[in-house]
């Protein structure tokens, strides 16, 4: 019930709430049990034995309307419970007579009837039992039990109020889930084959395919390729296997024309590289894909173009040979002009993939390699690097977040980075990285736990159930823990 319903007892008795005065009587009230509230279902049941023995003597005319209050330790929330009366001998007789003779007396009404009327026996051992029930609220997990008294003397003259804290840990502790999860130890690799890619955007004269090393931005692009090959040839930790290249063209013009142009440019660029780098002899493969509609679609999806939906519909629904005309018809051609100037140039490129074999690394070398070429490590080596740093350190976390970017298809880096997030209480970060890969069944248990820690109970139960159905280690235990926690806490 609301606090005001019970505090009004004092007001209806002709009192006004005065400033809290120094504790004079309530400070002597003691309880033997620290926890006096027990959650049962959605109800908070209060039960306490109040020892009044140490209270100072009460004057015979003193009336104390005592209201137990459950008060949050972390917010302004509180709930007042049904009050009880503590009285001196004369005052007890007066009030007892009044309520006996007057059935309409405030203390005879259902909403304002005190839970108990107690006559104080000064100088003697005395105790009383108090019980009440109120709807449970989550903030009660961290709450105190307060006694607030409004005191009156003879003729109901107000004597002020006093307050005491019986316990600052009122609720019987609720069930704490014991979730279990641990860092995944990756398997090693017998042979570390890696692919490192480089996208070259060579400029050609319109409709031409001859490579012009000094034309437009070509010097910069060719220098990047040269630097990469020199790096590979000069690294004793690497064995170079081959270079594969795929050429792409932008989609303007006729489909057949662009396919042929893309093919000619790929052949021309391949011939150029073969002539310049003898190391590529018998270790070079080239291919071409023609107009890169898929690349255009990806760029449009990421854009803020106002006609995005119309463009995607054309790409998805129309044959390649009809798309250019359809795009040109949108918005009187202004949209197509934007595509030509801003979206088509990046599509004209050659994707180079350097195929290498990397030798195994000792720990000290691996700790250096992860800073420059993390993908050249095996996941087992990444694990060794991570474990070489202290538990809870930023370096251990950074090792796995770096590996997560270097091995985007692997499960272990994402899982281990998320586990470290969970252990550190970074629940939003853990949830974000796991939600991004929610299609991966092997991550469902951790995703369920991330939802649980984020208090998204339905999602947590759903993913832990799916993980348990797949027989993932620890999933059934964690699902049982979640359900036990939800039953006791929610």
Question: How does this structure look, described?
Answer:
The protein is of the alpha+beta class. The chain folds into three domains: 165 residues, no CATH class; 164 residues, OmpA-like domain (60s Ribosomal Protein L30, Chain: A, 2-Layer Sandwich); 129 residues, Tetratricopeptide repeat domain (Serine Threonine Protein Phosphatase 5, Tetratricopeptide repeat, Alpha Horseshoe). The chain is built from 16 helices and 14 strands. Strand 2 and strand 3 form a beta hairpin. Keywords: Signal.
Contiguous uncertain segments of 5+ residues? 1-5, 7-23
β-strand number: 14
Give the overall silhouette: elongated
**Count of DSSP-assigned helices:** 16
Element order, helices and strands?
A: HEEEEEEHEEEEEHEHEHHHHEHHHHHHHH
Give the DSSP E fraction (strand runs of 2 or more residues): 15-25%
Straight-line N-to-C gap? 20 Å
Structural class: alpha+beta
Helix fraction, binned, reads 25-40%
Overall pLDDT metric: 92
Mind describing the biggest β-sheet?
6 strands, mixed
Radius of gyration: 38 Å
Q: Number of domains in the coordinates?
A: 3
InterPro entries: OmpA-like_sf, TPR-like_helical_dom_sf
Region (Disordered): 110-130
Keywords: Signal
Signal peptide: 1-21
